[in-house]
Amino acid sequence: MTHLIELSLAALLLVAGIALPTAVADDSHAADAPAVDWCAEHALPESACTVCNPELEARYRAAGDWCAGHGFPESVCPKCNPQPAPRGAAGDATIESRVVQLATTELEDVAGIRTVVARHGGGADSIACTARIAFDADRLAEVRAAVPGIVRKVTVALGDRVAVGDPLFTLDSVRISELQAAIQSARGRVRAAEANLERQRGLRASAIASARQVELARSELATARSAAHEAESVLAMAGASDMESTGTATVTATVAGTVIRRPAIVGTLATTGTLLATIADTTAMWALCDVAETDAPRVTVGQKAQVSVDGDGSRTLDGEVTWLAAEVDPRTRSVVARIELADRDGRLRANQFARAFIETSAPQHAVAVPRAAVQRIEGREVVFVRTAKGVYEPRIVTRLPTTGVDAQVAFLTGDVNPGDAVVTTGAVLLRTEMLPGSIGAGCCETSPPGAQ
After folding, report:
1. Helix 174-205 × helix 211-238 angle, to 10°
2. Where are the CATH 2.40.420.20 domain residues in the chain?
3. Where in the chain is the domain with CATH 2.40.30.170?
4. What kind and span of H or E run contains 186?
5. Residue bearing the bigger pLDDT, 21 or 330
6. Whole-model pTM?
7. Higher pLDDT, 364 or 304
8. Pairing mode, strands 3-7 and 98-102
9. Is 117 exposed, middle or buried (0-12, 13-18, 19+ CB in 10 A)?
10. N or C: which end of the chain has fewer CB within 10 A?
11. Is residue 37's pLDDT more than 90?
């Protein structure tokens, strides 16, 4: 039988601390109900409850049926082996059969009752750790000049997106002029060596030149070609053209990404050790997590993780552990774990502080609600679902055992579905009306639906 608890304005004011005359709830029918073997306070049969009946403990210990961790018989331990409450027992059907209804729908706003929508969630054991955001080192490039020179033109600005081969800087370089001259000289030597080899082959055919003279001409041609190829390779690496002797070179991008640093300006003396710019692909970032030494054995490559950045708590990024350090930091006694993150909208910044949760077990199918929505009534955890304005049904749920997850979220299984409107603010008020002898019970009527 479903019972309706009508919550009046008097009850709301009483909960708020305003004393009003109260009526006594009618409990006459309670005496007629048969006793049920169930301890609602500890959620196991009364006949096996060793808290209410401590004399039973020795018997269960002797039988080997004992959960030392929770202090109950192992077979009915409410934590290890939770049992469904029997029909009619306090904490089961009697909870779900009660519906709290405000006397008028306007009282919902007076009471300040607020709801949120339950969503899909996955409860899993996880490890919480601090982290910092870093660039993906595999997608990071430092731009330097292949040969010394002076920066004469800058064609890129901080924050610009560049593709592979895009021009960044133009250099004037004496070394470029030397290489361009060397190429012209080497090519002249190649042409001379080719002509000499042809002549020696002709003389050899006429028995005038020896075989050794032909071999020497062939060796000289190979040397000339090698010198020309070397000069052309260095010139190409420097970004200069071998078609003209201008002494200029163009430094181009070697990776696609965003220019995150550009210390070079016009007039900078660029040596081979001078950093001209840094390019990073910011669509992929790393979260470097400091995992406690004691938790490190539970972390493995491939585990899923969630990362939330300080100052951007509204967004959580999903990632995966791709590397775990082989050493413990002697100062912090922590192990670095790397999580790869996709950042398509570019909101992450290197060196930001973050919070990471690494899942160490497979997620379970569950519903996620704010923890404030979960109330404890008669030894059971309950969520109030708003079925209409001013009408709230209690739903018995089971909270999944999770560690390290967001302290503001509870993962549940039970009679709550994604999309249900669950009460958060005001859930404590509804809970008081469900408890016998509560501060609001004297202001409410308990009766079957439709009764006056």
Report:
1. 160
2. 3-35+99-122+365-447
3. 127-136+281-359
4. helix 174-205
5. 330
6. 0.51
7. 304
8. parallel
9. exposed
10. C
11. no
CATH superfamily of 127-136+281-359: Efflux pump adaptor protein, beta barrel domain (2.40.30.170)
Per-residue pLDDT at 32 exceeds 60: no
Q: Which residues in 229-259 are b (16+ Cβ under 10 Å) and which e?
A: eebbebbeebbbebeeeebbbebbbeebbbb
How far apart CA 286 and CA 303 sit, in angstroms, is: 15
DSSP state for residue 263 in the 8-state scheme: -
Tally Cβ neighbours within 10 Å of residue 362. 9
With the C-alpha atoms ordered 227, 232, 237, 240, is the resulting torsion angle positive or negative?
positive
**Paired tokens of 262:** 């550009």
Instruction: Please name which of 150, 152, 168, 147 lies closest in space to residue 234, comparing C-alpha atoms.
Output: 147
DSSP code per residue over 324-374 = E-SS--TTT-EEEEEEEEE-TT----TT-EEEEEEE-S--EEEEEEEGGGE
What DSSP designation does 273 have?
A: T
CATH number of the 145-173+250-277 domain: 2.40.50.100
The whole-chain average pLDDT of the chain stands at 80
Assigned token pair, 55: 């004399």
pLDDT in tens, 157-200: 999 999 998 999 998 888 877 777 777 777 788 888 888 888 88
Q: Is the pLDDT of residue 428 over 70?
A: yes
Surface-to-core class of residue 305, CB atoms within 10 Å of its CB (0-12 exposed, 13-18 middle, 19+ buried): buried
Domain formed by 3-35+99-122+365-447, architecture: Beta Barrel (2.40)
The CA distance from 410 to 209, in Å, is 96
When pLDDT is averaged across residues 85-113 and rounded to a whole number, the result is 73
How many Cα atoms within 13 Å fall on the side-chain side of residue 83? 21
Write out pLDDT tens, residues 322-380: 999 999 999 999 999 999 999 888 889 999 999 998 988 766 677 888 888 899 887 78
Instruction: Give start and end residues of each alpha helix (H) in 206-314.
Output: 211-238
Instruction: Please choose, from the candidates 420, 341, 428, the residue with its C-alpha nearest in 3D space to the C-alpha of residue 377.
Output: 428
Domain 174-246 class, CATH top level: mainly alpha
Cα gap 5→441, rounded to integer Å: 9
Sign of the CA dihedral with 370 first, then 86, 83, and 414 last:
negative
Number of H helices, E strands in the chain: 7, 25
